[in-house]
Amino acid sequence: MTRKVIFPVTRVHEPLRVDVEIEGGRVVDAWVSSLLFRGFEPIMAGRDPRDASLFLQRICGICSTAHAIAAAMAQQEAFGVVPTPNGQLLTNLIFAADLIQNHLRHFYVLVLYDYVAGPAVPPFIPRPKGDFRLPPKTNDELSQHGVKGIEMAVRAHEMLAVFGAKAPHQQTIMASGVTEQATSERIMAYRAVLREIKHFVETVYLADVLTIAEYYKDYYDIGAGYGNLLSYGMFPQPATGRRAIGAGVVIGKNATENLDGGQITENIHYSWYRDAGETRHPGEGETQPDRDKAEAYSWIKAPRYRGLAFEGGPLARAWIDNDWRRGISVMDRIIARARETLKVCRLAEQWLAELAPGGPTLRPFEPPPQGAGVGLTDAMRGPLGHWFSYQEGKIRRYQIITPTTWNFSPRDASGKRGAAEEALIGTPVADPDSLIEVGRVVRSFDPCFTCAVHAYPAGRMR
Amino acid sequence: MLSRRKFIQLCMSSALTLSLSDALTPVLRQAQAETRAEKPPVIWLELGSCTGNTISLDNAVNPSLRQFLDETIDLRYHWTFNAAQGEQAVAAMLETVARDAGKFWLVIEGSVMTADNGRYNEIFARNGEMITGLAALQEFAPQARYVIAVGDCACYGGPAAAHPNPGGAKGVWDVVTDKLIINIPGCPAHPDWMTGTFSHLALYGLPELDAYQRPKMFFGRTIHELCQRRQQFEDGIFAAFPGEDGCLYRVGCKGPVTHADCPLRQWNHYINWPVKAGTPCIGCASPHFPDGMMPFYNHLPDIQTPAVTVNIKKVGAAFAALGIGAVGTHLVAGICARRIHKHYLDGTKPSDPTPPETLEQVRQELDDLIRQQNALLSEAKQLERPQRKPRRRKSLLKRALSFWHTEDKDGKGK
Cβ of A55 and B121 within 8 Å? Predict the structure, then answer.
């Protein structure tokens, strides 16, 4: 049995360390560690509750809009406001643009070079040793698409800026809508770019994904994990609040159940924090960082739903919405992500048609002196929750559980592995010095470790 | 090759129809062909960051990231782009540090986490030993040709360094004190600011920097000075809530104290920028972001005293009536900034005073100006009517305030 370490795992967002134990050419045990702690939650204490959305999106540069929207949803509940119909549609359009951007970048910047040999210039060399199976012509074609794919991601951010002012870190989303106006020329601008991107997704992105799936069929059987899937749903519709992509819970690939927020707990047995109790509902207790804690190996806490580890992301959403149920594996995650990109392009077209040009996109409001709220939405890579309460115009407690804490959680007190750790078990390893296969499994989750934000207090979850 | 002056004019130009990197790439290519410009090896380290600046740089790259890598910089290590992982990637980076010492550029994104001796952020392993971001920075910086901090976090600490700063986040220049750090702030930094600065470094060496070590060609003027809604400020048309028409000063715009050229340049290929989209500037390119800029939706110096409810429509009129105060401050700031710009183009050195950077400074200057104004006015009155018996003097501010008091909120009078 040999133990190997990959640190840093490149082509993910921010520091990730993976330790694997290999026996007989397969991974038999795995540990994933996040190695950045910034502590955004204590920073929020004492601040103006209206600022949460703009400030907290700065947790993450790739999924900033998701944080802004989760915070805005929590504000809506706390302030007792609802967005105008146009405001909700614009919020959805901004989020859609960011999601499309994220999925394109994930495939063409982060994942592609696991399967395709890139050009012979840094940073594409040195190249990891491993099985690059594509025939040279196909390989070059996909490598060229890498250039085009990034261009399309840039275009998606332009589309975001049409209504979101700038990207990354849009600046227009507020609790009651969006500050930008839905003028016909802006709608046209968004639609023009969207059409271009949709064409690219239909003709290139989906085809590229299927090409890779064709040559790497064995990855349909690698990286399965528990089969526990979780989604909070995303894109609430104006007026009804029904989500265009639904929420739900799937345990062990069984039937979809309804989500019950009260079942969520967090455990810190293997995380670098100290607390009187190890398992808590998000928001209870006082946790302090302690980098020297014995046995701990990550800055991420271990969130559990009914005591079980869950994975989130495009595959979980597609499974819950019955869009893709072929299986759970590395390739299924990549395919589900591509299919979701197209789905969101189509939804965005629909929202553009529903917009009333010139209609109000925002409703002025005055926050009441105190309040509390919960904002649950899926981000690009899984379920994202914001919980907060404020008094006398100042935030008292803020708590966030990010998607990567679900997907890349460490073990809990009972020794149960996190979702990605479990998915790594059984991964074949050809060369223990390269571990390219392990990288492929990890990247299929689209991990992002800027989100290790936890520290102490937060309001009791409601 | 372009002269340096022309290059700066190009960088500051608002007439670009494509991205700045589009305009710069041919210049660089030509310069490299004439071997005047180097194609520097670059090591890009992400410390306590959100990856936003990397994404932002990626956004600049028109026509492609690859062209930027082919023609501008030789990106040896950046963990978002490296094909290699783990040991192999680290070995390539350490080889660059050893072989190209004194030649490579070190780009830092994200704040330096200093709590617990840097152990809140570890970024690679060497011979089984975990290396913190802090240690890597301290080791590599002395060997680098240039150290460039991109984004507000790397420059000045940024959001992670906001009170109470649980991770001990600091800007690079707080940690590496014996070397000049080139700061390119912004949350995130605009792609043009990065490509423009990188190109200047490659073509002409160090660009001219201000007191906060920012390239003056991008950070020489305030948002307020360049703003499209500036005229509405002068005319006293103020938005009462974000999203409305009018100057956003009253709903928290930090443009008057933020040095950046967003209004000129705009974001994501010149599509939009916050104030144009109806949302106040939050001062994300400022050295005092975010603590000095929050609450985001409250206006700068808080003139809304408990004694008086200021009608939003009257503020502009009041400022115009005072003829000084905030407007004066902004004018001073504007004049200073413009002078810096002029000096910059002429290659001469500007002399202080520098425009206000913090709310405190603005408030101070405003107070001073009002005090001077009142002193002058009362002096003038005494000279004008020396024979009258002394009256209880009312300050101009009080007069102005009482003027507001006498009218209802709609400004229609009693």
Answer: no
